[in-house]
Amino acid sequence: MSEDALAVRLRSIFTDELDEQIQELNDHLLALERMPADSDRLRAVFRVMHTLKGASRAAGLSLVEEVCHALESELSRARDGGSALGGEQIAMLFAAVDALGTTRDSLRADKPLPDAALTALLQHVRGRGSAIPLVSASKIPENESLPAPAPSSAPVVHERSEDQTQSGARVKIDTRQVDVITGAAGEIAGLAAILGDRAEDLASLRTLHRSRRRGGTQDDDWDQRLTGLLRNASADARALAAVAGRLGGSARELRQHPFSELTETFPRVARDVARENGKQVRLTVSGGEIEADRAVLEALREPLLHLVRNAVDHGIELPAERVAKGKDAEGEVLIEGSLRGDRLQVTVSDDGHGLDVAAVRRGLQQRGRPLPTSEKDLFRTIFEEGFSTRDTATTLSGRGVGMGIVQAAVERMGGTVEVSSVAGRGTKISIHVPVSIATMRVVLAEVDGIVLGVPSSFVVRVDRANPRTLKRVDGRTMLVTGGRPIPVMTLASLLGPPFQEVPSPAMLQIVVLETGDRRLAVVVDDLIDEREMVLRPLEHAGRAATNAVVGTALLGTGVVSLVLSVPALLARSDGGVPSTSRALSGVSEESRAPSRILVVDDSITSRTLEQSVLSAAGYDVTTAVDGSEAWRTIERQDFALVVSDVEMPHLDGFGLCERIRANARTALIPVILVTSLDEPAQRSRGLEAGADAYITKSSFDQDTLIETVRMLIGRNTRSVE
Predict the structure, then answer these.
(1) Sheet holding 641-644, edge to edge
(2) CB 477 within 8 A of CB 471
(3) pLDDT at 334
């Protein structure tokens, strides 16, 4: 090997070594920052710096070598003197790690090294009087003209000794080679399917031949040869499928990476964000040993980084605030990875102040959005695009900022994301994605002559249903099977043009889908099969198309099938089934019990007026004469909304509203205050108590009341207009 080639190879190896050493330094420094007197950690940091000094000398990187030598001297003085590192020294070491990371990135991208940053760091360390200028072989002139390292796109190959080739040894290979193997496995699987189809064709041909022979034509030799050909073709198809299975399994194993590789940089991220905001945070990762497809882990990196930053920046309180609440001054962010069948579940939780439910409700009202009746649906709205930094940074403490980006990234993988929160105790974000997006088990169905795939992990069941057994509730077609009614839509209407619906058959082919607590039954023209498919990305198709599918799969016939994103389908279903749906025409309407509203007023005249207005609009109205009676009624019955006066004996409207908000069962019930108190201070008092709307009796208007009710709980199906 020539000197130039050796130099290139040494720099390439040094770049890979930096990856491991930088992560090790971050881990040790994070521990030292928490326990500065930990001598074992101090010695570990010293060893890493010593190793990097020698490695950078071998790679001909003299400036990096000098920096490592200076830091080694600083660490040696602390180690030998038995003293703990101070905050300034640890900050300097973190800065050194960042500079080394920039150096690694520059080497990998074949860009000039960050000499200015390294020189400034070196001068800072030497300015402390702890390091001696270093003269080494790497500073001899002939070593200063080393050629640039090879581009990072070149395959990384490591020579192996004989004992490294034993079973279980890890070898670095170019990820493009893994993709080639995966693609080849998919092509072989497709060929095996085609060969299987050919065997079926031969079987049909033999059947035809035998029928002709029974008609009088005799050709035993031809029949025997055809039977032998059929037997061999079937055996070849099985053998090819077995080879494809082994090859695909090996390719999947090559693509597997531990979850810890995804999260190894997150403790440093949490530490930096916490220091910027004057907070104390401990980030813990569990489940680091589980493995998933590298493509899945890479796709999760940015969403999880965003969640970690949000948890620290906007979820965890300041130390003084935490202590005042009886919490530890140091907040905790927990990342948990686990496997649930063929799904990877990742949760990011914190023990901060949690989501501000009232603020979320106000944010929706300001945008004229109806308020969800359940807490889960309410929390789900933070993923909507409307929750931007400018709009919600104060009311939501930033928790909704950019969450739509997280959801979009997860759904592109065919995954789901859910949020839960408890006031004063923290927030938890749960992500569910496939373990692998290279292969996926899918249910194949035909729609308008096109074969589409649905990931099996979202399929609850497939079924056949008589159209006459379906019901219409609130204008939506529902599948009622004894449990909770499930909305029904044709997959053709859900996807839209160019897909066309077919007339309703005698029996509907239905696929019931589920993500989280949401279900949807989709009607397809025909159910074909369930298969393990090799997925390939859909490229150059536009954002709308790529968000609606998780990839493409090659069928045995050579036809390319789109594999649909179930979360995207459920998002589209929120609009309901078009009234022109031919496949679901003739479904009978089933009435639903009207929403129940409680009207509270000590004036019988006002109480009767409001009851009459709401009853005429189709609502079921119950009345109470004051706040105390209203609260006793609420404890016994469920209500969709409360309309209350303010000035009442025993318990006024403000007190009733506060009591409703303080109870976990009733906290989400919308409250409208209708009162003669029109002073700004009274309005402010009502909103502070948790009221969703404030209507004055002096300007009372029936239409205003009805529109406010509809904005908060929706239009009633029995409304008379």
Answers:
(1) 620-624, 596-600, 641-644, 671-675, 693-696
(2) yes
(3) 96
Classify 23 as helix, strand or coil. Answer: helix
Write out pLDDT tens, residues 167-197: 444 455 656 666 667 666 666 766 666 666 6
SS3 assignment, position 606:
helix
pTM: 0.56
Terminal Cα-to-Cα distance of the chain (whole angstroms): 89
Give whole-number Cα distances, 616 to 140, 297, 440, 525, 611, in Å.
95, 56, 54, 43, 8
Please determine, for residue 567, whether its predicted confidence score (pLDDT) is greater than 90: no
Residue 621 identity = V
* Confidence class for position 600, pLDDT limits 50, 70, 90: very high
* CB burial string 332-343: b at 16+ within 10 A, e below: bbbbbbeeeeeb
Alpha-carbon separation of residue 136 from 32, 57, 69, 365, 426 (angstroms)? 31, 8, 11, 69, 54
CA-closest candidate to residue 348, choices 427, 431, 429 = 429
Task: Identify whether the C-beta of residue 334 lies closer than 8 Å to the C-beta of residue 308.
Answer: no
- List of domains in the chain: 3-152 (1.20.120.160), 175-255 (1.10.287), 264-434 (3.30.565.10), 439-589 (2.40.50.180), 596-713 (3.40.50.2300)
Q: How far apart are CA 136 and CA 649, in angstroms?
A: 90
Quick one: which of 191, 201, 202 has its CA closest to 230?
202
Alpha carbon of residue 88 to chain centroid: 38
Q: What is the DSSP letter of 311?
A: I
Q: Which of 301, 267, 309 is nearest to 410 (CA)?
A: 301
Number of neighbouring beta carbons within 10 Å of residue 620: 15
* pLDDT for position 708: 84
Torsion region of 249: left, alpha or beta (phi above 0 gives left; psi -120 to 50 gives alpha): alpha
3-state secondary structure 379-446: HHHHHCCCCCHHHHCCCCCCCCCCHHHHHHHHHHCCCEEEEEEECCCEEEEEEEEECCCCEEEEEEEE
Per-residue pLDDT tens for 662-713? 998 898 899 998 877 667 777 778 878 888 888 877 666 788 888 888 888 8
* 591, burial (CB in 10 Å: exposed 0-12, middle 13-18, buried 19+): exposed
pLDDT > 90: percent of the chain? 16
pLDDT for 519 equals 86
Tokens of 139: 């500073």
Task: Find out whether 413 and 434 touch, Cβ atoms under 8 Å.
Answer: yes
Average pLDDT of the residues in 294-314:
87
Sheet with 331-340: strands ordered across = 281-286, 331-340, 343-350, 426-434, 416-422
Residue appearing with tokens 């009372």: 700
441, β-bridge pairs: 532
% helix, strand, coil for the chain, step of 5: 50, 20, 30
